[in-house]
């Protein structure tokens, strides 16, 4: 039975890694529910491996929060585990991890950041996107090594690569919340 699970996981990884024609390299850059590390005893070590950083560089509260929510489906206006949108997720994350209340919408959040260039980003900074229009309509939280956590409309809470051509094309602003 265990052998079957390993084979299924390998097939799933191969399918996912072959689907993104716009990817810059063959490494997997998004981590939906199927690869949730909930079964791992040490969440921080798992995310350190995923992000290619030393575990001591990670905020344990941030990654425990992410791990708790990874795979939660998207729901416009949602604020709980039955469904959440990007700004609701970021707002809840900042309240719980950083004890900071942010504005409710991604556009309002973008107005209160101290702007940075993408190469200056640090763990906990915000990244903003405009998909289809000029106005900001999506937000995520920067982690490490160009990776960020956000809520995908199709795949829910997940980790993606900021430099992936799809995201980088629509990146509009990034920075540290100031309040």
Automatic annotation (TrEMBL):
Domain NlpC/P60: 56-179
Keywords: Hydrolase, Protease, Signal, Thiol protease
Highest taxon, organism lineage: Bacteria
Pfam families: NLPC_P60
Family assignment from sequence similarity: Belongs to the peptidase C40 family.
Record's protein name: NlpC/P60 domain-containing protein
Species lineage: Bacteria, Pseudomonadati, Bacteroidota, Sphingobacteriia, Sphingobacteriales
């Amino acid at each position: 039975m265990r052998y079957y699970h390993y084979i299924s996981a390998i097939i799933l990884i191969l399918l996912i890694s072959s689907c993104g024609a716009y990817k810059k390299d063959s490494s997997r850059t998004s981590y939906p529910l199927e690869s949730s590390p909930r079964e791992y005893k040490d969440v921080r070590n798992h995310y350190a491996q995923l992000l290619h950083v030393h575990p001591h560089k990670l905020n344990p509260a941030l990654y425990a929060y992410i791990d708790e929510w990874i795979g939660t489906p998207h729901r416009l206006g949602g604020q709980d585990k039955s469904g959440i949108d990007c700004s609701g997720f970021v707002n809840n994350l900042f309240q719980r991890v950083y004890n900071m209340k942010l504005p409710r919408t991604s556009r309002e959040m973008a107005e209160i950041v101290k702007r940075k260039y993408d190469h200056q980003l640090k763990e906990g900074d915000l990244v903003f996107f405009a998909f289809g229009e000029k106005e900001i309509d999506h937000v995520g939280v920067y982690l490490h090594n160009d990776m960020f956590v956000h809520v995908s409309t199709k795949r829910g809470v997940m980790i993606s690569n900021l430099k992936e051509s799809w995201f980088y094309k629509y990146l509009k602003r990034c920075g540290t919340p100031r309040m």
